[in-house]
Design brief:
By secondary structure, this protein is α+β, with helices and mostly antiparallel strands. The chain has 3 helices and 13 strands; from the N terminus they run αββββββαββββββαβ. It folds into 2 domains: 77 residues, Outer Surface Protein A, domain 3; 84 residues, Alpha-Beta Complex (Outer Surface Protein A, domain 3).
């Protein structure tokens, strides 16, 4: 039995969920996401919950996955997802201009990236070395954050580079002079 699959997805107020065949649409007044699930699981909508059940024992792997994806759609539409990045190093900085992100990360040139549609990129108001990425789709937010981090991963000796906020970088000792 899937512990995650057994739990129903609770639908908050103002969120509309519609089922049409093997497609589920989750809609907020401004945002709408949809997901095509497998025909090997059954998705039913009750009053303010969505319940996912497997059709037979061979499809239990899809049971929890489908429920988690539907839950991520509901959370994303109602609350948004947010990922924060921190940059460390002398002269390293983020610059944000509308949907364009410019990274100064120690190369001879600045690295420019454009944010995907429905992703908001903003600098922190207090600390200019922290970048917040937020959006409706969890996969897009996490993927864009990982692409930014991949441009200059934190190195283990001085910790320079781009890392997630609250990520612990294991430091190495470095060479001794003897």
């Amino acid at each position: 039995m899937s512990r995650i699959g057994k739990m129903p997805v609770v639908i908050p107020e103002k969120v509309e969920v519609t089922l049409a065949g093997n497609n589920i649409k989750v809609k907020w007044p401004l945002w709408e996401l949809s997901f095509d699930f497998s025909d090997k699981v059954s998705v039913t909508k009750e009053e303010n919950t969505v319940v996912v059940t497997p059709i037979d024992d061979s499809t239990k792997a899809l049971w929890g996955t489908t429920r988690s994806i539907i839950n991520n759609l509901v959370i994303g539409v109602s609350e948004w997802y947010k990922k924060s990045l921190e940059i460390n190093g002398v002269g390293y900085k983020f610059e944000v201009s509308w949907t364009k992100l410019t990274l100064s990360i120690g190369f001879s040139h600045k690295v420019e990236m454009s944010a995907p549609e429905w992703i908001i990129v903003a600098l922190d108001e207090k600390a200019k070395n922290i970048l917040h990425i937020s959006g409706v789709d969890k996969q897009l937010v996490w993927e864009f954050a990982s692409k930014i981090r991949a441009k200059k991963k934190p190195e283990p000796y001085k910790g320079k580079g781009i890392k997630y906020v609250n990520e612990h970088i294991v430091r190495k000792a470095g060479k001794t002079g003897k």
